[in-house]
């Protein structure tokens, strides 16, 4: 049987070969750490990597370093019903992971594996855990049960408590190269025109570029960029612009604004305003934390403040 027989959904992306080979080698020698922290920018495939690694650890007969896709364990896994695999995520996108799911995680790991093999948990994104949830996880990180593995996926490592980070083996996932991302995107979409602009909007994050293609996010991103231009030129008032931002996915729009400021700094467009620019970047990081918190900030007021700051900075 060849590699082509392996289920694609149980494989990593092409730019993740080095990370996979390292962890697969450790797994083969039964030296894989019980807690792995998969860290890097969002939309580079860490979730897929965690899923593929979970399947490989659970599989009865790994094939060429991957889950075979055909054994009983793989069939249960692909059906989403494997009793020894648990995924912990926020109930709603952009919300916090509360303590109750982490307590359930502890109970899950404390029981004997129902299939007699390994037990695997994926927490995604790990930084979404509130403080109580992170504290509850520590016991499982400090006192791991036999043949149990916890995979933490993190897009923003700085938001994860140091007590959690220090108890995990970190595996870094940098951005793939522009050429590698573009080549992969062209292969999976059979599209060649407009990829350069698409990758620029996606900041070379291949899965975000794909998401742009499969939804109206590209149009939303372009409309947001045009709105920023209008605020800069005085064609629209910041408060009016804020009203238009309310219906845009807030976390993603804050990322877009962050990228816009970062690119302006790199290109020298902001000149002597760089100190203020870096302060604004710090503010955007704090805004994103507030959006992930349980505080339920007033989105309209939040965007009014950001657009006023953007007008002052860009003009």
What does this structure look like?
It catalyses: DNA(n) + a 2'-deoxyribonucleoside 5'-triphosphate = DNA(n+1) + diphosphate. It comes from Porticoccus litoralis. 53% of the residues lie in helices and 8% in strands. It is of the alpha/beta class. The protein has 2 domains: 3-172, P-loop containing nucleotide triphosphate hydrolases (Rossmann fold), CATH 3.40.50.300; 215-314. Strands 2-3-4-1-5 form a 5-stranded parallel β-sheet, sandwiched between helices. The mean pLDDT is 90.
Summarize, please.
The protein is of the alpha/beta class and 315 residues long. It has 14 helices and 5 strands. 53% of the residues lie in helices and 8% in strands.
**Average pLDDT taken over every residue:** 90
Return the structural class. Answer: alpha/beta
How many strand units?
Answer: 5
- What's the end-to-end separation, in Å? 62 Å
* Annotated CATH homologous superfamily of the largest domain: P-loop containing nucleotide triphosphate hydrolases
The structural domain count equals 2
What about the largest sheet?
A: 5 strands, parallel
- What is the count of DSSP helices, taking H or I runs of 4+ residues? 14
**How is the CATH topology of the largest domain named?**
Rossmann fold
Q: Tell me, what is the CATH class of the largest domain?
A: Alpha Beta
Q: Please report which band the strand proportion falls in: under 5%, 5-15%, 15-25%, 25-35%, 35-45% or over 45%.
A: 5-15%
Task: Report low-confidence residues grouped into runs of 5 or more.
Answer: none
Helix content: 40-55%
Order of helices and strands: HEHHEHEHEHEHHHHHHHH
Based on CA atoms alone, the radius of gyration comes out at 22 Å
Record the strand order, biggest sheet: 2-3-4-1-5
Shape: globular
CATH architecture of the largest domain: 3-Layer(aba) Sandwich
